[in-house]
Amino acid sequence: MNQINYQKELEKIIQQAEKRKAEGERPLRLFLHSCCAPCSSYCLEYLCPHFAITVFYFNPNISAESEYRHRVEEQKRLIAAYNAEQKGYSIRIVEGDYEPSRFFEIAK
């Protein structure tokens, strides 16, 4: 059984990030997958003070393209709002390819 406490591991990494920040070094970078804005909101709020974050939005299991586009725009809106409030690092977003037919074929 896996006995690793990932919260404690994250806290160690955050300490490293804070040390770098105090020494004037560039922040540690974090590439964070997101399936939707609500799921990423807490993670972004928690991690943004410590890392330079790039969000990778990818959710090909949504079959209606209009719903997919709506969710992408909500993710972008959340990130823009969060960036407007922050005085530190800004969050970037990268959107993955929307290929639901490929996803459904793999999932069969």
Helix/strand layout:
Layout: H1 6-22, E1 28-34, H2 37-47, E2 51-57, H3 65-85, E3 92-95, H4 100-107
Parallel strand pairs: 1-2, 2-3
Helix pairs in contact: 2-3
In short:
With 108 residues, the protein is of the alpha/beta class. It has four helices and three strands.
Q: Which sheet architecture does the biggest sheet show?
A: 3 strands, parallel
| Approximate strand percentage | 15-25%
Q: What's the arrangement of strands in the largest beta sheet?
A: 1-2-3
* Average pLDDT: 91
Structural class label = alpha/beta
In total, the number of strands is 3
Elements, N to C (H/E): HEHEHEH
Helix content: 40-55%
- The helix count comes to 4
Radius of gyration: 16 Å
**Which stretches are low in confidence, meaning pLDDT under 50 for 5 or more residues running?**
none
N- to C-terminal separation?
30 Å
User: Given the C-alpha coordinates, what overall shape results?
Assistant: globular
Overview of the molecule:
With 108 residues, the chain is of the alpha/beta class. It has 4 helices and 3 strands. The protein has a 3-stranded parallel β-sheet, with helices on one face. Strand 1 (28-34), helix 2 and strand 2 (51-57) form a beta-alpha-beta unit. The longest helix is centred in the last third of the chain and has 21 residues, at 65-85. The chain starts with 5 loop residues before the first helix and ends with a helix. The model has no long low-confidence stretch (mean pLDDT 91).
